[in-house]
Design brief:
This protein is mainly β and about 55 residues long. It has a domain of about 35 residues. The protein contains no helices and 2 strands. The protein has a two-stranded antiparallel sheet. The chain is elongated and about 60 Å long. About 5% of the residues are buried. Bound molecules: zinc ion. The site of zinc ion (ZN) has 7 residues, from loops. InterPro entries: HSP_DnaJ_Cys-rich_dom_sf. It comes from Rippkaea orientalis (strain PCC 8801 / RF-1) (Cyanothece sp. (strain PCC 8801)). This is Molecular chaperone DnaJ.
Amino acid sequence: MNHQSSTLKTSNLICHHCEGKGYSVIRDCTGEIQREETCLFCCGTGKKQDDEPED
Ligand SMILES: [Zn+2]
């Protein structure tokens, strides 16, 4: 009996901290972009590094 393989997980999940850009934009209180910093959550890859459980 063949089970349909639904266990394949997408490993290229986009890092939602930086929305896949690999960096986060630092803004001041007026909304003006100050600088861009490498996203610490994905180390600049824009992809999720850890296999976090979804909740
Ligand atoms: Zn990121």
